[in-house]
Amino acid sequence: MRFGVIDIGSNSVRFMLSEDGVTKYKKVITTKLAKGMKDKMLSNEAVERTVRAVSFFVEHALQEKVDKTLCYATAAVRSANNKEYFLKQVKKACGLDVEVVDGKTECLLGLMGACEGKDGAIIDVGGASTEIAVIKGGKVIYSHSLDVGAVKLTDAFLQNRENAQKCLLTLVKEYGDVPAVNVKGIGGTATTVSAVLQELEIYDPLKVDGSFVSLKDLSSLIDSLYSMTIEERKKLKGLQPERAEVIGNGCLILLSVMQYLGIDGITVSEKDNLEGYLNYYLERR
To answer: What average pLDDT does this structure show over 10-25?
Structure first.
């Protein structure tokens, strides 16, 4: 069977084409759904951008002759007071029903995608939340979704590194005791860091998947990012220009979590909650 899976994230909308359990490719459109949220309300502009992106991928899925298109949404939508309005706009535009997953399920999706049932852990820095989850012996033994992501941190502190770091030092303590295991980094921040460190002019998932990002290299990259203007960041090899505004703060979150866990690096995984959601859907059929 051919499936199209759409992930409505807080920073981007992503699409995966899967055939008989094999990921054929992924595409992404940056919409910054969480940008400018006030009183937990998604802005009209962000809703319009995101609905257009979802509609584009629904049409793309039809062109690919998929058997079914699945769609889920994460932190920005689940925390929004006007989420029902957003869901109705998606339904009206393209007839798609969106499943809004909670933080615990989002952690599970990441594990199902990246670890595929094997022992391990994931860090997923998103636009409005950051997840850590651990699986051992086929059971999820730890999961927690922190209410901060690259877009949300940028909205709060712009490019003020010092203030953002101070905030994160307090926030990461919410994770409590996390079991020590090998950690994979999933999601746009981790894959972007890998692509930038490798100076990939054209994004290559085969080069990103399985790559190692050390704490030292990440720290050096952060120093470089905060010494640049947003326009200078856009010229970096491996960085999507649409991520230039939020990548510094996304990296800060990733660094803060790694330091909190006391690890010297992460292995980047191309497989993530898109694969995880498809497996999650199939298990519930």
So the answer is: 96
